[in-house]
Write a structure and sequence with these properties.
Ubiquitin-like (UB roll); 2 domains; mainly beta; five-stranded mixed β-sheet; 14 strands
């Protein structure tokens, strides 16, 4: 069992430039401010619009407590064990122009393919944003911040041949 002081040191790692590192849904983020609002936490995690997400804080063994958007969190405080965000309602993303309902804030390309009913071993994912495409062919476990209306395209993987 870790002491309260050790728990604080582990959670509130200060990197050389004085930034504070914290986690939302096991993903690391950093800020220069020791005190940050719930809204800023969601914005840093790219969970927008922030009003679509509930932010929860794990407080020792007492379980989870909701964090209001204007509520201030002291990242130096010993009472924080982790932050968790979840959408208030299911989010709708599009894969190959088909709507897919998800309830996660962060998903990997493989998880998105699976949610869309595709075999992640036979396909890779591209994110479509206007005229830009971001390929996740070689980064299949990258965590993508999920927002309503994100568009993706599944692409068939070419079989590899051995000569």
């Amino acid at each position: 069992m870790l002491s309260e002081q050790m728990r604080t040191l582990i959670f509130n790692t200060i990197i050389p430039m004085g930034n504070f590192i914290y986690k939302v849904n096991r993903e690391k983020f950093e800020t220069v401010d020791a005190i940050i609002t719930g809204k800023e936490i969601l914005e840093n995690a790219n969970l927008l619009p922030v009003e679509d997400y509930e932010l929860l804080i794990k407080v020792n063994e007492r379980g989870f407590e909701p964090v209001q958007l204007d509520e201030k969190i002291d990242l130096k405080g010993a009472r924080i064990e982790g932050l968790f965000a979840k959408p208030y309602k299911k989010l709708i993303i599009y894969v190959d122009d088909e709507p897919v309902e998800v309830d996660e804030c962060f998903m990997s390309p493989n998880e998105i393919l699976t949610a869309a009913g595709k075999d992640a071993n036979g396909f890779y994912l591209k994110q479509i944003s206007g005229h830009k495409e971001v390929s996740y062919k070689n980064d299949r476990e990258h965590k993508i911040a999920i927002k309503n209306g994100l568009k993706f395209s599944s692409c068939k993987l070419e079989p590899t041949t051995v000569s």
